Amino acid sequence: MRVAGGTLAVPELLPVTCIFTLPPTGRGEGKGCRGLFLSPRAALSPTLPVAQPVSFLPENSRPLVCQSLPTGFAGELSCKADPAPATEEPAAPEHPLEQPPAPTDESAPVPTEAGAEVTPVPAEGSPAEPPAPAPEPKPEKPKEEPPSCPLSLAVEEVSENSFTLTWKAPEQTGRAGLDGYVVEICKDGSSDWKAVNQEPFLSTRCTIPDLTSGDKVHVRVVAVSAGGASVPATLEQPVLIREILQLPKIRMPRHLRETYIRRVGDAVNIMIPFQGKPQPEVSWTKGGQPLDTSRINIRTTARDTIFYIRQAQRSDSGKYELTVHINGAEDRATLDIQVVEPPGPPQNLKLVDVWGFNVALEWSPPVDNGNSEIKGYRVQKSDKKSGKWFTVLERCTRTSCTISDLIIGNTYSFRVFSENCCGLSDSAALASAAASIEKTKTTYQPEKVPQRDMMEPPKFTQPLTDRTTTRGYSTHLFCSVRGFPQPKIIWLKNQMEIREDPKYIALIDQGVCSLEIRKPGPFDGGVYTCKAVNPLGEASVDCRLDVKVPK
After folding, report:
1. 456-548: what CATH class?
2. CATH class of the 350-437 domain in this structure
3. Closest among 521, 508, 501 to 477, alpha carbons compared
4. Which of 150, 291, 475, 513 lies 20 to 30 Å from 533 when distance is taken between CA atoms?
């Protein structure tokens, strides 16, 4: 390799080319140096730091020291290689490296910092540096499309110096989304459109102020995004700036059309909306007199009026008149407020009568009904033994009642509560006298029943039936008999009375007679007779029993 100041000999390894670019010297184009590297694994930076010694030691190579130039250096670059130490020659590799292609005389121009092209000199025994591939062109980004036109543009309200517009968002807003809307106006007969807002906004409602009454104004709305502005949405007719007169009207809520009931101490907070243009005047009165502002607060806005009482008292009950009027036209509404509380106890509770298991009570209505109708009375009783109160009647609408099913021997006390829409009275009326249910003396007189002659001789209602049994298997004989007095039952076998024989068990229950023959044998067969005897006569039935012997 040739460099300024001499020739540098290096081992024959793979050639790698690097260009050192000197900083500008002010005396023409930049200087360059072309050299060989000892290994493809090492790479040198094309531009070396100024006044910094850089040492590269590629693998399988001798050190190559390049001295960078100091600031302001105007000479030529010199590179030298350290002398190689004496080492044994390495063994030849099994597969020798392929020889690089023959160098060519052509070389690619090297741009310098001054913009001039310098043709580098190829190193001896090194191939020409291939030209750098041209950068691929970047694909163009798709162009953003503008949004579509805003929808449903309409006038919401018009006053004497302004009007309000509303609209809906466009169907297509683009990938980047909307930046906002721009509202423009133009007076009728002119083509000079002026923007109402300098910066786009995202609201779909806009009020345009500071207009002159009587003017006709055209208006349009444009949607703006990164792709540009949309087709404007316009009104078919210009907007006439004038006050639209509207008769006053009170929109009384449904629940306030009836009596509004609150308890004593509760807050009363009522909002009543109204309408009318221009701004109507609102006034409240009670019985034709102005309200007491120390207890009642009234707050009125452009669209409603609020009636507020912090803690209601019974004196606040009554009918309040609301009046809304505009230039001689008016509308009236009445608000009926009733402030209630629990009633007082009933009066003059007394015990009217006590008979058998019953007590009659009577009382008078309470003096104070709590500013509400009495819905009924609750009657309770308490016996002297337990002392506990039990409800006997609820919502009794009369001022008297009868209490029944009392227990004999107990003494009872009674009390009565009054009840209205707020609930029961705080206290009850207590009967001054107690009711004692006394035991009544009664004498039992049995009913005289005529005597009936029940005497009857014995009579069999179910006779005996013939039976056949097997030897060794117990069997039963049944029949039924009636008679009064109860007849005596006698069992006979072949006209011989059966006495206390453990082989036979005779029973009678409710007129049903039975005879059990236990494990009969061939000699137990024959004619069995049941005889019934009482003082009025006798009766008998018989049957035949056959005992078979299995073969």
Report:
1. mainly beta
2. mainly beta
3. 508
4. 475
CA–chain centroid gap for 39, Å, is: 73
Task: Please write down the long-range contacts of 403-408, taking CB distance under 8 Å and 24 or more positions apart.
Answer: 403/358, 403/359, 403/360, 403/361, 403/379, 404/357, 404/358, 405/357, 406/357, 406/358, 406/359, 406/435, 406/437, 407/357, 407/383, 407/437, 408/357, 408/437, 408/438, 408/439
Whether the pTM exceeds 0.90: the reply is no
**HSE, side-chain direction, 13 A CA sphere, residue 217:** 28
What pLDDT does 473 receive? 93
User: How many whole angstroms separate alpha carbon 184 and alpha carbon 229?
Assistant: 13
* CA-closest candidate to residue 346, choices 402, 420, 435, 262: 420
Write down the architecture of domain 246-340 according to CATH: Sandwich (2.60)
Residue 325 and residue 280 in contact, taking contact as beta carbons nearer than 8 Å: yes
Q: Which superfamily does 151-241 belong to?
A: Immunoglobulins (2.60.40.10)
pLDDT at 133: 65
Report, in this order, helix, strand and coil percent for the chain, each rounded to 5: 0, 45, 55
Q: Which residues in the chain land under pLDDT 50?
A: 1-126
Q: Which segments of 209-366 are extended strands (E)?
A: 216-225, 228-229, 233-234, 239-240, 246-250, 260-263, 268-277, 281-286, 289-290, 297-300, 304-309, 318-326, 329-340, 347-355, 358-364
